[in-house]
Amino acid sequence: MTATNHALTGAFIGLAAGNPWVAIPAAFASHFICDAIPHFGQERNNMKWLRSRFFKRMLLVDIVLCFAVAGTLVVVHPVHWFLAVVCAFLATSPDFYWVRKFRDAVANKPYQKPEGFGYFASVIQWFQKPIGAVVEVAWAIGMFVLLIPFLR
């Protein structure tokens, strides 16, 4: 899933749970649950995709939207806003593992098959295809609708 959807999911968990002992592990676990749902992407070893201008722009927009989610929580200041920001970050954080793969792709280094955590994180993403954008949009709308009552 996109980082924005992970952040929205984590923020919702933080606001809905309100208890850090529940929200923090649930937000982190939500990353892997969301990645197991069919979503937008390309094949795991598609280094050309990671070098594409479209991917770089998409990544930049995703980063900006993640900061917008956190910024909205800070400005609107709902109950448990700080926990929601932490949970949004934690729900997104496993994707930081892929920074090295992105740097390797940009540097034209060959694809290296992930091991350990990377293997687990890539295998659960069994369906990453362009048509998965439909799921991404639906998920974002659903999370936004669930978040609205907490932001009033």
Description:
- 68% of the residues lie in helices and 0% in strands.
- By secondary structure, it is mostly helical.
- The protein has one domain (3-151).
- The chain is globular and about 45 Å long.
Helix and strand layout, with pairings?
Layout: H1 3-17, H2 20-36, H3 47-51, H4 53-76, H5 81-92, H6 99-106, H7 117-123, H8 133-147
Task: Write a brief structural summary.
By secondary structure, this protein is mainly alpha-helical. It is 68% helix and 0% strand. Helix 1 packs antiparallel against helix 2, helix 1 runs parallel beside helix 8 and helix 2 (20-36) runs parallel beside helix 5.
Keywords:
mainly alpha; 152 residues
The stretches of 5 or more residues where confidence is low (pLDDT under 50) are none
Strand content: under 5%
Shape: globular
Termini separation (Å)? 27 Å
- Give the biggest beta sheet: none
Relative helix content:
55-70%
Class by SSE composition: mainly alpha
The secondary-structure element order is HHHHHHHH
Query: C-alpha Rg, in Å?
Result: 16 Å
Overall residue-averaged pLDDT value: 94
Q: How many alpha or pi helices?
A: 8
